[in-house]
Design brief:
GO terms for molecular function: serine-type carboxypeptidase activity. By secondary structure, the protein is α/β, with parallel strands linked by helices. The protein contains 14 helices and 16 strands. The strands form 4 sheets. Strands 3, 4, 5, 6, 9, 10, 11, 12, 15 and 16 form a 10-stranded mixed sheet that branches. The protein has a two-stranded antiparallel ribbon with strand order 1-2. It has a two-stranded antiparallel ribbon with strand order 7-8.
């Protein structure tokens, strides 16, 4: 039903007041299904000055009957001085959540603009963006894709004008496998429309986006017959690889040590070491001693339990009795609250460099995620300004930093195995993993564990690489790691484009 309002018009006529009422239609905030704006820009990246275009807008999702079911919002950056587009790589970028917009990597990592924050990633005013001299736009064109209900992306009405039910939307869009299926269709349409079939292609995903792109690698091969050169996993989730029980508990210790080291909460002998000297020591202890001890459970001898508790306490910055009372298994939420409890501060979940303050010092978890509030503080005004005022895309639809996509169907998550299978079928396909040492949500040692278990045979180990950074979940917010992580990505792209006439074969 159309919304209506009454417009009251008052006019003075002589000494009398004439009042009239007319019914008019209120505008509705709707997104166009298929609409773009193209703007021209120039920048200097990695020492090169060049022009590029930004195509901003929507492209439909089509169902099997060819009907548009959703409008996906995207931004596509294309370098303009390229002579042979067939040789020009295309980087297709997704963020995670699920339910998160493709804003984080767009205006803080790989895109031609980066967020105005200080060198460690904290908000500064005035809000906005600045040129990103480290963007990989010098070596690859980039498209940032917003899944349904994120950014400006929205479901469309049915042919008869009615809306899809919540259950229908979940089956169509909101689950591990539904998400991969419709996004693969969308990518096919995008590549076809923009004539990029011959280009080397890369997927990059952050956080839950790593689950997404791991699944897409095989879905694109098997259903769209589109073969990739690379998949980049930034702060990866478990991608369907099981690591429960003792493994889950043990894998946290290297992250605990990193966070404690950053906050100067370790003993002087450990604190005097560089982080990259300390972490290999903790990793070895985790695999050789801590994990086997946790696996013994209640059968662990009391004397050995005391020894383990003492060493875990030393590496984590916690008290030995606290570790014992936790039965050697320390939850991350408790760690974020406990590490600096005596200082009256909590540490961040996604980036433990960030500090918070709680109502009470007692309790088992922080009141809020200090890093996320900081990020939303700076990202939200920046993306709303940038899209509208610099890229010229204007709409009254709300930009969803996080959109309504839950409940999310997480069943049958085989995305890690799907990535392995895609690699096995495609000798060109390589994987790069990027993680921040201070990320407590998708910790770097879990990412290494993924790397070890994606391919149990070990025959593709030379096609999977890992890079770590002295920051958190969004490692690129720290100025030095923005440079390093982009350069690692740039080198990965260059290294995974095969030589001319090099065949894809074993």
């Amino acid at each position: 039903m159309k919304r209506m309002k009454h417009l009251i018009l008052a006019v003075m006529m002589g000494s009398s007041l004439v009042v009239t009422a007319t019914a008019t239609e209120l505008p509705e905030a709707k997104i166009a299904a298929d609409d773009t704006v193209v703007t021209e820009h120039s920048t200097t990246i990695n020492g090169q000055r060049f022009k590029y275009t930004a195509t901003t807008g929507t492209q439909p999702v089509f169902n099997e009957d060819g009907e548009a079911t959703a409008a996906l919002f995207f931004t596509y950056y294309e370098r303009q001085d390229v002579k042979n587009r067939a040789e020009r790589p295309l980087l297709i970028s997704f963020n995670g959540g699920p339910g998160s917009a493709s804003v984080w990597m767009h205006i803080a990592y790989t895109g031609p603009k980066s967020l105005r924050v200080d060198d460690e990633g904290f908000p500064i005013m005035p809000y906005g963006v600045k040129d990103n001299p480290h963007s990989v736009l010098d070596v690859a064109d980039i498209v940032f894709v917003n899944p349904v209900n994120t950014g400006y992306s929205r479901p469309l009405p049915k042919k008869d004008g009615s809306e899809y039910s919540r259950d229908e939307l979940q089956k169509m869009f909101f689950g591990v496998n539904a998400d991969v299926k419709y996004l693969a269709d969308w990518v096919n349409t995008f590549v076809t429309r923009h004539e990029r079939w011959r280009s080397p292609k890369y997927l990059i995903g952050e956080s839950y986006g790593t689950t997404r792109v791991s699944g897409l690698a095989l879905e694109l091969q098997n259903r769209q017959w589109m073969y990739l050169n690379g998949v980049i996993l930034v702060s990866p989730t478990d991608i369907g690889i099981e690591r429960n029980g003792p493994v889950k508990a043990a894998n946290r210790l290297p992250y605990f040590a990193a966070a404690a080291w950053y906050h100067d909460a370790l003993s002087s002998d450990l604190q005097s070491k560089d982080l990259l000297e300390l972490l290999p020591e903790v990793e070895k202890y985790t695999l050789d001693v801590y994990l086997p001890a946790l696996a013994k459970g209640a059968m662990l001898p009391a004397a050995e339990k005391e020894q383990i508790a003492e060493q875990v306490a030393k590496y984590s910055g916690l008290d030995k009795q606290t570790v014992l009372r936790s039965n050697l298994d320390i939850s991350t939420s408790f760690f974020w609250k406990e590490l600096l409890r005596d200082r009256g501060q909590t540490i961040g979940r996604l980036d433990s460099r960030y500090l918070g303050i709680d109502r009470d010092d007692v309790g088992s978890r922080p009141d809020y995620n200090s890093e996320l509030t900081s990020w939303l503080h700076s990202f939200t005004p920046a993306i709303n300004y940038y899209l509208r005022e610099e890229l010229g895309y204007k709409t009254d639809v709300k930009y969803n930093m996080f959109g309504p996509v839950h409940p999310w169907d997480r069943s049958n998550n085989n995305t890690g195995e799907n990535l392995r299978q895609a690699m096995a079928q495609n000798p060109y396909l390589n994987v790069l993993i990027q993680s921040g040492y201070y990320d407590g949500a998708t910790n770097y040692f879990d990412a290494k564990y993924n790397m070890w278990h994606i391919d149990p045979s070990g025959r593709m180990a030379d096609r999977i690489g890992f890079k770590g950074y002295r920051s958190g979940h969004m490692m690129y917010l720290r100025a030095e790691d923005l440079r390093l992580s982009n350069n690692d990505l740039r080198e990965f792209i260059k290294a995974t484009i095969p030589a001319k006439d090099e065949a894809a074969k074993y």
